[in-house]
Fold:
Amino acid sequence: MAMEFSGKNVLLVDDSIVRGTTSREIVQMARESGARKVFFASAAPPVRFPNVYGIDMPTRAELIAAHRSEDEVAREIGADALVYQDLDALKEAVRRCNPKLKSFETSCFDGRYITGDITPDYLSQLAVERNQARGEGEADNPEEAQTSGSEQ
Structure:
């Protein structure tokens, strides 16, 4: 890998950044292989909210992008710069493939839960239950659990 990376600017592309752990490790490997600069691109928008519809997803406190800007996430994972997929552009691309699709469940990106009944208290309770199941006592800060509403 050193031959491909040594002295070069590298663009790494991944499907998403959730906790940032894997992204950080990949960036570090590129740097250890001699990359001069490491840029990171996520094929998904920033994951800022937990999914409550059946996907076992981290609590909001565990999501690297929950309360960080793109520049802050880039610093956290060790990249020189970070680019996320734009949510509106993603929706438009899917609509071009199937014009019949009018709405999308994108709560993990925008905090708009399609059922309209997901509240900050509900998310806090889920965090408490998740942490208790893992043997950790504390839950997310209720302020961190806030959603941006349920409108689609």
User: Anything to note?
Assistant: The first strand starts at residue 9 and ends at 14.
